[in-house]
Design a protein that fits this description.
By secondary structure, the protein is mostly beta strands. It has helices at 2-5, 162-166; strands at 57-62, 67-74, 93-96, 106-111, 115-116, 119-120, 134-139, 144-156, 172-184, 188-202. The strands form two sheets. The chain has an eight-stranded mixed beta barrel. The longest helix has 5 residues, at 162-166.
């Protein structure tokens, strides 16, 4: 289960404006590995598109926010901490390679910096996105998975709902995460912004 892998992926934020790193378990379980399982919230429903086969992401667009970002794979490193996009590429989004790819059944996870020491980063405007807006993920096979935003929530890092955010889904779903809330130099950001979306079209 993805939640078992990313127990605290963004339950804490660093002072670089990126989702916090996490200690991983001994075994990494990919999201979407069992698309027949669901957490009760991720079942297929009205407005859902047919899942796509696996294909790695190449870019992420949020037209309503003017975001058009290249994507780099992020993974659990040897220290079992989730990588983030490089600081010297602040406009790059990270896509967790252990989860679902764009349009694939399961829970896909995209993460990115809100800011870095050099200034605003790729997801600086993410808290402004509205339900009903599109998020487009282009794939290596040339197809594009189009997700529609269901809701946007800000969770305090001390009570981050791992199962709600990372739980397996029967249909293709996407979570886009960055830091939010208040900032102080000692502890970084106090909260995480989480965008919940589901696949509604492919092209």
């Amino acid at each position: 289960m993805l939640a078992a892998v990313l127990v605290t992926l963004v339950s804490r934020c660093g002072d670089d404006g990126a989702p916090g790193r996490t200690d991983g378990p001994d075994t990494v379980t990919a999201a979407g590995a069992d698309p027949g399982a669901a957490d009760g919230r991720g079942r297929a429903g009205t407005g859902s598109a047919r899942p796509l086969p696996r294909s790695r992401p190449t870019s992420l667009r949020i037209p309503s926010l003017g975001i058009d970002a290249p994507v780099t794979a992020v993974r659990l490193g040897g220290d079992r901490q989730l990588e983030t996009p490089p600081f010297d590429r602040p406009k790059t989004a990270g896509w967790y390679e252990g989860g679902a790819t764009p349009g694939e059944a399961g829970t896909a996870i995209a993460v990115g910096h809100r800011d870095t020491p050099s200034g605003p980063a790729v997801f600086a405007a993410l808290p402004l996105i509205k339900p009903g807006k599109a998020i487009e993920a282009r794939r290596a096979d040339g197809r594009t998975a189009v997700y529609t935003v269901d809701r946007v929530q800000v969770f305090d890092k001390s009570g981050f709902p791992d199962k709600e955010v990372y739980g397996r889904s029967r249909r293709p779903e996407l979570r886009v995460l960055t830091c939010g809330g208040l900032y102080n130099r000692r502890n970084g950001y106090s909260s995480n912004v989480v965008v919940f979306a589901h696949l509604t079209a492919t092209r």
